[in-house]
Amino acid sequence: MHDYNKHDHIDAQGQPAADSLTKENVFVLSDAERNAIEHEKHHYEDARAASIEALKIVQKERGWVTDGAIYAIADVLGIPASDVEGVATFYSQIFRQPVGRHIIRYCDSVVCHINGYQGVQAALERKLSIKPGQTTFDGRFTLLPTCCLGNCDKGPSMMIDEDTHTHVKPEDIESLLEQYQ
């Protein structure tokens, strides 16, 4: 089981730890990744603005963004690695640690709270034997709370990968999860 909430590479002030973003963590981007990032870079007046797209490019190919990828992206964009790390850690859609094949995001907003998301969360935790922020032992699912999924009139709601499920009840969880192998 992997704990997604664990951020060894971030210090107490929320900054990249001095020993985490080192040249030893550098890896080589594929030609396709480098070309795609270069292409995105030219869409923006300031290369920093391309950071999120560059991170998404690497994550799409590799599943998550390593410390080495932060340096490689910064090198292509010509900006400090700390700027790329800041963007990567700000956006919850960018994974800085390995995640499961399927990402489950359940809404824990006030509206879904009123509509009973707690039962859905408990059913997910029971069925998967993990807590929020963790990945199942087999690497199949990662469970992440999300502030809002934009379906406030249809809560409780959750997403599995890109699929939105609304009016979810605890008893729906088992059949929903069976759809994602």
UniProtKB/TrEMBL annotation:
[2Fe-2S] cluster binds at residues 107, 112, 148, 152. It catalyses: a quinone + NADH + 5 H(+)(in) = a quinol + NAD(+) + 4 H(+)(out). Transmembrane segments: none annotated. One of its GO terms (molecular function) is quinone binding. It comes from the Bacteria. Its cofactor is [2Fe-2S] cluster. Keywords: 2Fe-2S, Iron, Iron-sulfur, Metal-binding, Oxidoreductase, Quinone. InterPro entries: NuoE-like, NuoE_dom, NuoE_N, Thioredoxin-like_sf. Binds 1 [2Fe-2S] cluster. Composed of 13 different subunits. Subunits NuoCD, E, F, and G constitute the peripheral sector of the complex. Belongs to the complex I 24 kDa subunit family. PANTHER family: NADH DEHYDROGENASE [UBIQUINONE] FLAVOPROTEIN 2, MITOCHONDRIAL, NADH DEHYDROGENASE UBIQUINONE FLAVOPROTEIN 2, MITOCHONDRIAL. This is NADH-quinone oxidoreductase subunit E. It comes from Brenneria rubrifaciens. The lineage of its organism: Bacteria, Pseudomonadati, Pseudomonadota, Gammaproteobacteria, Enterobacterales. The gene is nuoE.
